[in-house]
């Protein structure tokens, strides 16, 4: 779902039609909001039981101190650090069902990518 949406946004960005939102930070925030609105639409389309179960699983993942590996896959350290930072900013647990919490994670990851001028494998975001 997000792969197609992100590919479309990347195409618009490279073609110049995504510009005009303002600063680079404003564009980053607009993209994170767009992406998490798509996630919200997907969540809203799920049956209540499936949605609640999925959110609970994600909350468990997001609010557990990660030893670096989850479900047999390495967790990108940048993403792990961003999750920890958002938990600190919130002053508690992240609620995956809360779009603003998800957007905070996205903004944190994008900000770190820009600061470090690198990529993160967790989200496949590059400068």
Characterize this entry briefly.
The protein is mostly helical and 127 residues long. The chain is built from five helices and four strands.
Helix coverage percent of residues? 55-70%
Q: How much beta, percentage-wise?
A: 5-15%
Task: Give Rg in angstroms.
Answer: 15 Å
How many beta-strand segments? 4
How are strands sequenced across the largest beta sheet?
1-2
The global form is globular
Order of helices and strands: HHHEEHHEE
Low-confidence parts, pLDDT < 50 over ≥5 residues? none
Mean pLDDT: 79
SS element count, helices: 5
Quaternary state reads: single chain
- Largest beta-sheet details: 2 strands, antiparallel
Q: Assign the structural class, choosing from mainly alpha, mainly beta, alpha/beta, alpha+beta, or little secondary structure.
A: mainly alpha
Question: Terminal Cα separation, in Å?
Answer: 22 Å
Summed up, the domain count is 1
Characterization of the model:
With 127 residues, the chain is mainly alpha-helical. The protein is globular, with a radius of gyration of 15 Å. The model has no long low-confidence stretch (mean pLDDT 79). Strand 1 and strand 2 form a beta hairpin. It has helices spanning 2-15, 24-45, 48-62, 77-90, 99-116; strands spanning 69-70, 73-74, 119-120, 125-126. The chain has five helices and four strands; from the N terminus they run αααββααββ. The longest helix has 22 residues, at 24-45. It has one domain (2-126). The strands form two sheets. It has a two-stranded antiparallel sheet with strand order 1-2.
């Amino acid at each position: 779902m997000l792969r197609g949406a992100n590919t479309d946004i990347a195409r618009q960005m490279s073609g110049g039609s995504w510009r005009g939102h303002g600063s680079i930070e404003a564009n980053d925030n607009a993209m994170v909001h767009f992406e998490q609105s798509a996630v919200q639409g997907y969540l809203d389309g799920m049956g209540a039981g499936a949605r609640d179960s999925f959110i609970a699983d994600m909350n468990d993942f997001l609010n557990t101190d990660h030893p670096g590996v989850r479900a047999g896959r390495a967790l990108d350290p940048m993403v792990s650090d961003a999750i920890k930072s958002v938990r600190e900013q919130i002053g508690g647990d992240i609620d995956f069902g809360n779009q603003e919490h998800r957007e905070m994670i996205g903004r944190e990851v994008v900000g770190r990518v820009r600061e470090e001028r690198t990529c993160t494998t967790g989200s496949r975001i590059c400068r």
